[in-house]
Amino acid sequence: MSRPTPDEEDDQGEVFLDESDIIDEVPIDDEDLPDADEEEEDDDIVSDEADDSVHIFTGHTGELYTVACSPNDVGLVATGGGDDKGFLW
């Protein structure tokens, strides 16, 4: 029996969960959650912090999420970002 590829799994339609699928429940205290209004106010504030970047990876068109440096070759760097692309520099 072969395992379906991710593309084949997507073609099977919607997946629904029922009570038997629940592994664990985590109670959340509403008082510990941040207020949505506070987050919106933070977006309006412009940061005056200086850009102290050591390098700018100009190949990405979105946010940069991860950078990995080779332990064997100091000139080899891999990056991944919000533009769904990975680069080797």
Automatic annotation (TrEMBL):
Top-level taxon of the source organism: Eukaryota
Biased amino acid composition, Acidic residues: 7-47
WD repeat segments: 57-89
InterPro entries given in the database record: WD40/YVTN_repeat-like_dom_sf, WD40_rpt, WD_repeat_multifunction
PROSITE patterns linked to this entry: WD_REPEATS_2, WD_REPEATS_REGION
Keywords for the protein's UniProt record, in alphabetical order: Repeat, WD repeat
Record region (Disordered): 1-47
UniProt cross-references to PANTHER family, sorted A to Z: ANGIO-ASSOCIATED MIGRATORY CELL PROTEIN, MITOCHONDRIAL DIVISION PROTEIN 1-RELATED
Name listed for the protein in its UniProt record: Angio-associated migratory cell protein
Protein's organism: Trapa natans
